[in-house]
Amino acid sequence: MRIQILENGPYVVDGEIPIKEVTILEDETGAALDYAEEKSLKSQSDHVYLCRCGRSKNMPFCDGTHAQIAFDGTETDNRKNYDDEAIFKQGPLFSYLDNEKLCSVARFCHLGKGFWAAFENTENESDRESIEQTGCKCTSGRLVLVDKNGMKVEPDLPKEIFLIDDKPIGHLGPIYVRGGIQVVAVDGFEYEIRNRVTLCRCGESKNKPFCDAAHIRCEHMKSV
Length: 224
Known about the structure:
By secondary structure, the chain is mainly beta.
């Protein structure tokens, strides 16, 4: 199972990786609650080409538009591992790691009083539960909880791909890669395998191949 990046072209999904179109569900405050599955697209082992430039007329699949628009898909991520760049914050019951550049603005951290506000009051049982819930739902893996024994707290996710439609904000979101799937660069470099990763599919991220929330400013990524 892997995702291969083609030069100035699409992502190629190899292996029996389920691909699902999902919608973000919000509460009345605008915080994300969960994902609702709209459609299952793939579970077989043949190659699937997913659009990376954001201009395909056959989204989420590639239709060759990247060649017509001279899409520049150059990977600009510095290829450092998550732990090398994340900031560590100590708390009474939980600590956490934060790598802000990975934020895809999925808004799960806004749930309840918000991740950071709850973190300051983790002696309260409801806040402790809120932190664990919101931290583990961080789509991009920007936030990673650390328990009192120094162990990372990760949700048990199956290997699958979510194509996010963020209908509440009216834009298509990133490709949410779940469960630890290898992403391979154009030159063969193997990115760090992580439980939660978001890949850019608007073509405008300054941190390719990863999402930096550029999709929320892209007219061509309007939700349909």
